[in-house]
Amino acid sequence: MTETALFRDRDDGSPSAGEPRDTIVALSTAAGRAAVAVVRLSGSRAGPALDAIAGARPAPRRASYRTFRSPTGGEVIDRGLALWLPGPGSATGEDIAELHIHGGRAVVAAALEAALSVPGVRMAEPGEFTRRAFLAGRMDLAEVEGLADLIEAETEAQRRQALRQSSGELSARVEAWRERLIGAMALLEAAIDFSDEDDVPAGLRERAQEEIGRLAQDLSAALADTRAERLRDGFRVALVGPPNAGKSSLLNLLARREAAIVADAPGTTRDVIETHLDLGGVPVIVADTAGLRETADAAEQEGVRRSTLQARAADLVIWLEDAADPTQPSIEASSALWRVANKADLAGAKKGEADHLISVRSGLGVEELIAALTEAARAGASGEAIGLTRARHRDALSAAVAALRECLDHPLPEELAAELLRRAAGELGRITGKVGVEDVLDRLFASFCIGK
Ligand SMILES: Nc1nc2c(ncn2[C@@H]2O[C@H](COP(=O)(O)OP(=O)(O)OP(=O)(O)O)[C@@H](O)[C@H]2O)c(=O)[nH]1
Ligand SMILES: [K+]
Ligand SMILES: [Mg+2]
């Protein structure tokens, strides 16, 4: 599928399907000492290399216990499991051999050296196994991105989302939109074909137009839903408010460490200090900022400027104020803003107009605040349907919506409308890598480690 489209567009001299490629080898498990390490080979020389190192080739897809030897000196390297996974039904579409050995540095180095001594075998580049899987059509681009995210996932909800994307859920959703578009295109084409005849089936153009309208709505709704991207990148919370309200104290409490300096003097914090939390499986980035006030101090002024930027970029602003000295929020938040009154332990403290009353010092109300934060992060970062996880997806989908809107806004001749639909379908194809993938490939694969 991806293969043909991809190779038709390639004229950069890189190898195409069917041409012999180098056989690659790498340590596929993490570097360092471990109980077991996996050295993996992919390519036409994987079989001969396995013969040379492990003796007779094991039966396909069955783990066999073998003695591994150096093909040059015959010296025993280690004993372990050998796997033979012949292509094209393998992960890369090529012949794959795996050596499961003991995970010591010297053992791994010797096994790699043994593989490299086989003619035609070289070390893999970062992400090269996955790149071959992609080129062989075993994975599409959105799935590869999901796999990259899976390796990077730090929380449970991120892991689940990445696994769904790498298993093709996003691709299937995009593909369903593309098929509907192609259906609308077919209606338009039919309207063009019949236009010279008397018995034009009634309403072809109208039916196409209705489907385009529904599609534009569905795609716009997907665009407006930023939850999947939030989950991938983290839900951003900004702590802002007047000086000395206890913003840095609250950050330290949430982070459970002294991440920010707390002091009696107002104007203590200048730089933005971020801490990463895992709230109910959602990654949350909390930013402590400089207290907002008029000041003659240049460094503090810059701090105040950064506070306002943080507030604008945040998914949630916590306006922290002194419960004994309430202050109206003086900041522009592009999303939700909670007023939280701190220092409830002090005389004269009252909740007033605040949404929460807390004391960082005594702990009062803090548990409730964290529960509310967890709820907000969950709501802001997880949905049922798998959504767009990257700016790249968003850009392609916006361009598709723009083309559809153009179709809807003007009474265009069928030929022009069909051309716009083709453009929209092409944009959707970019998400799964059916169209125009060259520019993203190198950047994406470089983000993988060697052996993946
Ligand atoms: N009594 C009381 N004091 C608190 C509480 N939270 C923080 N403080 C004190 O308030 C003072 C200021 O705290 P910070 O955390 O530095 O306040 P901030 O908002 O980060 O201040 P700037 O960075 O200067 O804007 C410190 O002396 C804290 O110990 C609280 O719940 N109760
Ligand atoms: K302070
Ligand atoms: Mg501070």
From TrEMBL:
Residues annotated as binding Mg(2+): S248, T269
Class of the enzyme per the UniProt entry, highest EC level: hydrolase
Gene3D superfamilies given in the database record: P-loop containing nucleotide triphosphate hydrolases, Probable tRNA modification gtpase trme, domain 1, tRNA modification GTPase MnmE domain 2
One of the protein's GO biological processes: tRNA methylation
Catalytic activity, EC: 3.6.-.-
Cofactor dependence: K(+)
Basic and acidic residues: bias regions: 1-13
Cofactor note: Binds 1 potassium ion per subunit.
Binding annotation for (6S)-5-formyl-5,6,7,8-tetrahydrofolate: R40, E98, R138, K452
Location within or outside the cell: Cytoplasm
Highest rank taxon of the organism: Bacteria
The TrmE-type G domain, residue ranges: 234-378
Annotated GTP binding sites: 244-249, 263-269, 288-291, 342-345
Keywords: Cytoplasm, GTP-binding, Hydrolase, Magnesium, Metal-binding, Nucleotide-binding, Potassium, tRNA processing
Short name of one Pfam family: TrmE_N
GO MF: GTP binding; GTPase activity; metal ion binding
GO cellular component, one term: cytoplasm
InterPro entries, per database record: G_TrmE (IPR031168), GTP-bd (IPR006073), GTP-bd_TrmE_N (IPR018948), GTPase_MnmE (IPR004520), MnmE_dom2 (IPR027368), MnmE_helical (IPR025867), P-loop_NTPase (IPR027417), Small_GTP-bd (IPR005225)
Described purpose of this protein according to its UniProt entry: Exhibits a very high intrinsic GTPase hydrolysis rate. Involved in the addition of a carboxymethylaminomethyl (cmnm) group at the wobble position (U34) of certain tRNAs, forming tRNA-cmnm(5)s(2)U34.
Family, similarity comment: Belongs to the TRAFAC class TrmE-Era-EngA-EngB-Septin-like GTPase superfamily. TrmE GTPase family.
Protein name: tRNA modification GTPase MnmE
Organism: Hansschlegelia beijingensis
Lineage, uppermost ranks: Bacteria, Pseudomonadati, Pseudomonadota, Alphaproteobacteria, Hyphomicrobiales
